[in-house]
Amino acid sequence: MMREDLFVLAEYAVKKGMRVSMTPSATDNVTKEKMLRAKAVGLSRWAFSLDGPTPEVHDHFRGTPGSFNLTIEKVKYLNELKMPLQLNTVISRYNYEYLEQMAELMKELKVVMWYIFLLVPTGRGQLDACLTPAEHEKVFRWLYELSKTAPYDIKTTAAQHYRRVVFQQKAREHRVNKGEIRYEDTLTKDMASVIDGLKRAPKGVNDGNGFVFISHTGDVMPSGLLPLVGGNVRDKPLAAIYRNSPIFKDLRNPDQYKGKCGVCEFRYVCGGSRSRTYAVTGDYMGSEPFCVYLPEAMRKNSAL
After folding, report:
1. Which residues pair with 86 in a beta bridge?
2. Model's pTM, two decimal places?
3. d(CA 232, CA 78)
4. I need a labelling partner for 206 at 20 to 30 A (CA). Which of 66, 122, 173, 228 fits?
């Protein structure tokens, strides 16, 4: 919001055929005039972070008193302008008990998408603020049921095992409903051919696999939550870095994952959060530390 060329850049990207959105902090720099300019240049969506249904919950998590009320004020501006609104929520120990209230608030605020992040203990995120593996599973099952009736889309980040939960839940439903899609087939087909409960093709996008993050200095990383540098766009083209960096090549090979992620039948769909794995274990190819699922290959071995 402090860049004088912000809308010049946004308009340039829009004219190049890109879908452009903005996710600023809700500060006094975010004015109705700037929202009008964003709409005029063709911005697809505007997003804010909202991590609790009340000032007490949100402001405590964000560490900024008054943040909740300021965010709601800016959201109301967007609603007046009929600008598509996305709200981002980090699910953690701080708001785990308030998710039903959050879901209702999303409806009241007329969001087109609720973007869910599962906490990665990096930066200011602390390990003791993460949910337990069982709580992750509970949240995923709740989100799946919510996605059937919510008047907004739900998207997740750092929640790769939600895809596994979606497939398992849909498999149970299809078996009950005489099976429109056989669950066993979904694991061997191109995943783009099967539409999941998220209303999109569940390709196995993960940190560095179908996704890149470019910092303000040009460093190319697998994601903003996996701070490993594969190269810099001032030295090499982005495509060359993505295709040839050893880090990116590792991350695009789920067969090389370690532990249970490496043998899991869902590794191409899920693969676990590489950023959370790295934050907790120091090994970005390790096993997702917050997943309760025991792969079929390991269950068979234990039975023997």
Report:
1. 47, 113
2. 0.86
3. 36
4. 173
